[in-house]
Amino acid sequence: MHIPEAIHQTEPAVIHRRHRRRQFLRAFALVCVVLVAGWFILLLLVLGQVAAATLEARDAIFDTATEVRSMDFSEGQKNLSRALDSIQEAEQSLFLLERVWFFPGFQKDFSTVKGTLVASEQLIDSLIDVLSLGQDVAQLSELKESSVTFNELPPSTKLVILERLSTASDDFDLLSSRLQIASEELTLLSESKLASPFIGVLNPLVENMNLAKSQLKVASVLSDLLPEFSGFETPKTHLLLFLNNDELRPGGGFIGTYGIMKVSNGEVLETKTADVYSLDSAPKNPVTAIPPVPFQKYNATSTWYFRDSNWSPDFAESAKQSIAAFESESGTNVDSVIGFTPTFASALLDYLGPIQVAGQTFTAENVPELIEYQVEKGFQENGIPVAQRKEILADLVDEVQSRLVSLPFSKWGDVFTIVTDALLTKQAAVFSENNETQQTLINFGWAGTISPSTTDVQLFVDANLASLKSDPVVQRSIRYSLFKNESGTWIGRTSVTYDHKGTFDWRTTRYRSYARLYVPKESELIRAIGLNEGPEVFEELGRRVFGGFVSVEPGEERTVVYEYKLSDAIVQAITQGSYGLTFYKQMGARDYALTLDLDFDKNISNADPAENHSEWGDDRYRLNTKLSQDLGISIK
Which of 443, 467, 484 is the last residue of a domain? Predict the structure, then answer.
């Protein structure tokens, strides 16, 4: 067969063009791979720069904390400046990342990260301001080391510190607000897809900021309270109430011992403690006050002495009565009242360590019982006169005070934590005759007052009357139920179970209490079960009160139940779908078991604190907890 010459000439050219096309495609693919690889490497480098800068900022902030503890505020400021530089480097890297990132849908994530970095800058700027405050105090007072103790400071230095700190409240509040903004930004960051690799890095910062916010708020409050309680410019006299919660009273515990502390410009001029019976038995002015009826009826008391003055569960009201009784009986005027229980004393000893006084070793574990034994029985064994039986407590107080003022400044943060925990758990409370100072105490929850902002209120109060020191062996559990009965009436039912685990001995006997339940004012009692005498219905502290006498033998369990019609305001709140409850803890009480079972007859969409997940999706709110402090409940 004959093949045309043109065809023979064309076939090599076609093959050549195909070969060139394949070469071009391979080269193009190689370029694309190189570009993608380069982009990916650049992306990794930029991400690495952002992560490294964030880590550097975190480390710098942690280093700052170390410097502050050693009171090297200047070095701390340098570390914060280093942190600020690192955050700015992260911002620059993020700017570059935006330019090389071409996947759609990430603009919100970039904005969130940028906002967080800006908030972090504001945070660090604020921390620098606070360190400047610390530097001011250190320079003005010539205080150079955290190992210096309060005792070692000359009066002039204490005065300088007080002057500066007393004006620092606004500074602390401003920083706290800035921390709140930064915290909110970091919360937003946690929802960002792009930012997820950094969450593990930033979580410690979030935790530290939340802690810092709390500490700064405490610092702000302390700055407000310093002038009053340190005797800044004007000497002050504080009445100390030793509230023995082994013999529980509405205002925290029986006042078996009291003290007087005189202060001026941060100096404790004098601290004296004394047996309350010494004062009550020989008052400067005749005591004519008539005690509340339950004292007369169940405690055989016809005169209202200082020792029984804390009858109100509102510490401010009790403190006013204590001041009136003390000033009348002693002739000494006081400016404030500081009440605390052996539970608080145990927490202090747990930190300070064992203390030896008069041949006895007091520890966190034995201090309530050992004090009680020494003042009730031990003094006789040691041949100590009755009038001097509580001198061992005075010696213990002196030693505790001595150890506290001898602590280095680096340890005072720990002491403030112990004190604030006692105030929040109502093992301590403070009252001031100065209205502005008292309002600060109330606002921060340190006053032990009963002033709820919610529609529903619960407060159960015991008053140990002639039961010796039985409270530690009488366990309580409280249950509050809310429901609509068959006739459509909304009912509240509060039950308290006493379980007496003790026996008859020198400390323990049958438990005798005048028990009161405080509820909203318009509540109507339907019935009371389990009381030996009562019920009585009256109003107090702007609340409706159901009261009655209950007696529980050793080894016995008894439940007291109050059932009542809920107030119209609570019914309206439930109907409108927004219910709030404040469940108060009694001052000085131990942590009682608390059960809430609230049936709203409609599904719950939101609750704070939340139920267990298994309880979600129905019309009942159930919570089992410990009533360790006042508890707020909000339900939609």
Answer: 443
Write down the pLDDT at residue 41.
64
Q: Are residues 320 and 398 in the same domain?
A: yes
How many other β-carbons are positioned within 10 Å of the β-carbon of residue 355? 18
Strand-pairing partners, residue 430, are: 338
Within this chain, do residues 569 and 424 fall inside the same structural domain, yes or no? Answer: no
- How many angstroms separate the first and last alpha carbons of the chain? 96
Q: What sign does the CA torsion over 246, 251, 257, 263 have? A: positive
What is the Cα gyration radius of the chain? Answer: 34
Report if residue 448 sits inside a domain.
Answer: no
- Residues 336-361 have a mean pLDDT of 94
128-144, pLDDT tens digit by residue?
776 776 676 666 555 55
Q: Are residues 283 and 375 in the same domain?
A: yes
Which residue range is the domain that position 71 belongs to? Answer: 24-227
Task: Give the integer Cα–Cα distance in Å for 183 and 126.
Answer: 14
Bigger pLDDT: 549 vs 608: 549
The answer to whether the peptide bond before residue 452 is cis (omega within 30 degrees of 0) is: no
Shared domain for 495 and 376, answered yes or no, is no
Of 194, 227, 260, which one is at a domain's C-terminal end? 227
Residue 249 or residue 22, greater confidence: 249
Closest-CA residue to 325 (of 288, 273, 278): 288
Instruction: Assess whether 323 and 422 both reside in one domain.
Output: yes
Is 466 in the same domain as 527? yes
Residue 67 has pLDDT above 70, yes or no: no
Report the C-alpha gap between 581 and 567 in whole angstroms: 13
Cβ atoms 221, 173 nearer than 8 A? no
Instruction: Tell me whether residue 399 is in a domain.
Output: yes
Which residues contact residue 591 at a Cβ distance below 8 angstroms, ignoring those fewer than 6 apart?
425, 626, 627, 628
Residue 104's pLDDT band (boundaries 50, 70, 90)? low
Claim: this prediction has a pTM higher than 0.90: no
Task: Give the long-range contacts of residues 399-405, CB within 8 A, separation 24 or more.
Answer: 399/355, 399/357, 400/345, 400/348, 400/349, 400/352, 400/355, 401/268, 401/271, 403/352, 403/355, 404/352, 405/149, 405/150, 405/151, 405/268
Q: Are residues 322 and 283 in the same domain?
A: yes
Q: Are residues 324 and 433 in the same domain?
A: yes
For the chain, how many structural domains are there in total?
3
Q: What would the two tokens of residue 324 be?
A: 């009136």
Given a contact cutoff of 8 angstroms between Cβ atoms, the answer to whether 47 and 197 are in contact is yes
